[in-house]
């Protein structure tokens, strides 16, 4: 009997372990991912349909990315400090929207790839629940002691007021500078706890008005322009009438 056969391991635990190991495979977005899934599936002992295999890989990848410790940290960090409306990470700007807008107010994403571009900057692939896009990271971010060690594959980035550009309809890039970074949650961070979250400092950022969590309260305090205009006109009319009355009284007094 082999040594591993003597281990007391539940079958469900073994399946969960195998699933986590298999989730290391990430499919390339788009049609290329279908070809990749077919090639990987062909090497398996028990071949599945390509569609079924791709769904399994996507499900395992989602679990690995969006149930990881960095992502859980991001969810609780945003909720505790009220960085987004209702404190929900789901209200962050989706990367898929970069194809139709030039500014992304607040982004929460996970780093999937990192590669230097040979000019001192770095190209990274970032992903959220809506899309995967490429980003250019300015060299000052890489030289900053606060960020240089944490910007790795698997880290979660919280960004604000990010510039995006789309040279072609199906292609989008975002530009990341030091000013855009709210927080980087490193890939090997521990599991979040209330004590650890409460010990963090609230980042000092200025959000665009549309992303301010208190936008509804601020809008309720605004006075309708029509009301201000009417009040102004009414005041001018009264003063005019008063002026005319005063002039008339003055003329009468002179005549007397």
Automatic annotation (TrEMBL):
Compositionally biased spans, kind Low complexity: 235-250
Sequence segments annotated as region (Disordered): 230-256
InterPro entries registered for this protein in UniProt: HROB, HROB_OB
Homologous recombination OB-fold protein OB-fold domain span: 105-187
One Pfam family linked to the record: HROB
One GO-annotated biological process of the protein: recombinational repair
Record's protein name: Homologous recombination OB-fold protein OB-fold domain-containing protein
Organism for this UniProt entry: Vigna unguiculata
Source organism phylogeny: Eukaryota, Viridiplantae, Streptophyta, Embryophyta, Tracheophyta
């Amino acid at each position: 009997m082999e040594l591993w056969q003597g281990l007391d391991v539940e079958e469900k635990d073994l399946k969960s372990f195998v699933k986590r190991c298999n989730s290391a495979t990430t499919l390339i977005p788009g049609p290329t991912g279908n070809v990749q899934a077919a090639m990987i599936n062909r090497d398996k002992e028990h071949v599945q349909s390509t569609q079924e295999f791709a769904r399994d890989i996507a499900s395992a990848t989602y679990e690995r990315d969006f149930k990881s410790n960095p992502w859980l940290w991001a969810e609780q960090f945003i909720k505790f400090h009220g960085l987004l409306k209702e404190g929900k990470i789901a209200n962050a700007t989706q990367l898929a929207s970069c194809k139709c807008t030039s500014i992304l107010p607040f982004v929460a994403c996970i780093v999937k790839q990192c590669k230097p571009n040979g000019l001192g900057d770095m190209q990274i692939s970032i992903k959220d629940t809506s899309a995967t896009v490429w980003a250019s990271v300015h060299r000052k971010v890489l030289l900053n002691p606060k960020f240089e060690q944490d910007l790795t594959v698997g880290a979660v980035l919280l960004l604000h007021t990010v510039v995006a550009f789309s040279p072609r309809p199906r292609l989008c890039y975002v530009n990341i500078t030091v000013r855009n970074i709210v927080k980087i949650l490193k890939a090997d961070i521990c599991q979040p706890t209330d004590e650890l979250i409460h010990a963090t400092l609230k980042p000092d950022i200025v959000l665009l008005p549309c992303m301010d969590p208190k936008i509804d309260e601020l809008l309720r305090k605004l006075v309708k322009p029509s009301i201000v205009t009417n009040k102004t006109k009414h005041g001018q009319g009264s003063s005019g009438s008063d002026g005319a009355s005063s002039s008339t009284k003055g003329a009468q007094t002179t005549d007397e």
